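Morning, I've got a small favour to ask if you have a moment. I'm working through a protein record and want to make sense of it properly. The fold is given in discrete form, as structure tokens running alongside the sequence. Can you walk me through what the tokens say about the fold? Thanks so much in advance, here it is:
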Amino acid sequence: MGDYCPETRCANLLPCAQHSKVTKRELEAGDQDDLISFKGCLLGAGNPLLDISANVGQELLDKYGLKLNNAILAEEVHRPLFEELVNNYQVDYIAGGATQNSIRVAQWMLQEPEATGYIGCIGKDAFGRTLRECATRDGVTLHYLEDEKEATGTCACVIKDKERSLVANLAAANKYVKEHHDSPVIQAVVQAARVIYSAGFFLTVSPSTAHALGAHCAATNKIFSINLSAPFITQFFTEPLLTAITYCDLCLGMSLKPSLLVKSRVTRTRLWQGLQARLPVCQRRTSLDPAW
């Protein structure tokens, strides 16, 4: 089969006498300035964590009361877990945090330098440098806020039989402030983005930032997406989540998470009101912007 004419709705094979006589090879070798640029098109906002990943046995899960296919915030009882993993297991260090992981995958899929960006807070320490190196190596443009006092956040990722349990120690990730989002540098990044994504975990840290990003997308007809992330987000951070959904074009969740969110009548009512508030914006976006 030959290549088709690039003209929209044209079914002619190349070369097309009606629109163009160029070949696919000539098109690919053409002026690169005419191609759509995805630079800075996707922005993520979340809790940057250095993942400490290891395969473990059931005894470690039992020791710290961990369940597979679950994610929790570290409590005092979990503090020794991180050191135990580093000392007793073969670990991998990965640029992590739910949103940052999604942005890294998107960067790999887009295959264009500087297509994605990410904001969040890390510490000024060795783990922070490792985290920055890992994420930069994956091609993500980083806009970290650095906290002078708090250590870089970490996430114990314990794996058993290809299933995992996550224990997040937010540390510096918990120190993100909206003033960083409001700064001229970050505002330029926000303005340049066409899609903004955040995991629900970020609502535990800076809901005002997540809501500001959503409001920006609603006002400028951009795409805003949020993930329900974990059962405890829908159960204990319901109000900031419902506010975020008010601005949301795409809300992601699996199995138990959505059902927990709509468990009560009051929550169902709020959710429906949020969707109704967002509906006019969704209706205006009847087709993708030509820039896409």
